[in-house]
Design a protein that fits this description.
It comes from Vibrio aerogenes CECT 7868. This is OsmC-like protein. The chain is an alpha+beta fold. It folds into two domains: 34 residues, Single Sheet (N-terminal domain of TfIIb); 98 residues, K homology (KH) domain (GMP Synthetase, Chain A, domain 3, 2-Layer Sandwich). Helix content is 33%, strand content 40%. It has three helices and six strands. The termini are far apart.
Length: 136
């Protein structure tokens, strides 16, 4: 896997993935684009959401939607690393089994999500979940 980051102007940078996709990042506290730390946070949410949806589908659950809401705490002084991240999963579906939802959300953070597992060596990673039931 490869990536390239090019300075645009000020503290704005263009990140380009090896697969040909781009994201603009703004080091000026996210003034005109996500900050690099916000991109890291979104990566954790995206990676863990893939695991949750895939896990629910593999367990034959009728999952219709998944939203990950991430909150953090950061150090006040440089380096302003994350000290705590909570991912709250809102899982929407038909007759979802709470036991399965609990298991796949836990497994994501503890076994499968590459981003969360990397961050978890330095950051307190927690999660919560909620089922939004949709009538058939």
């Amino acid at each position: 896997m490869q990536a390239e980051v090019t300075w645009i102007e000020g503290l704005k940078f263009l990140g380009q993935s090896g697969s040909g996709h781009s994201v603009v990042m703004d080091g000026n506290q996210g003034e005109s684009a996500p900050s690099p730390m916000e991109v890291v946070l979104m990566a954790a949410g995206g990676c863990s959401s893939v695991d949750v949806v895939d896990g629910l589908k593999s367990a034959d659950q009728q999952v219709l939607g998944c939203r990950a809401k991430l909150t953090t705490e950061r150090r006040e002084t440089a380096p302003r690393v994350f000290t705590q991240i909570n991912i709250h999963f809102e899982v929407k579906g038909i007759a979802l089994d709470p036991t399965v939802v609990a298991q796949v959300t836990s497994d994501s953070l503890q076994k499968y999500c590459s981003v969360c597992l990397m961050l978890g060596h330095w950051v307190e990673m927690t999660h919560t979940w909620q089922i939004i039931d949709v009538d058939e």
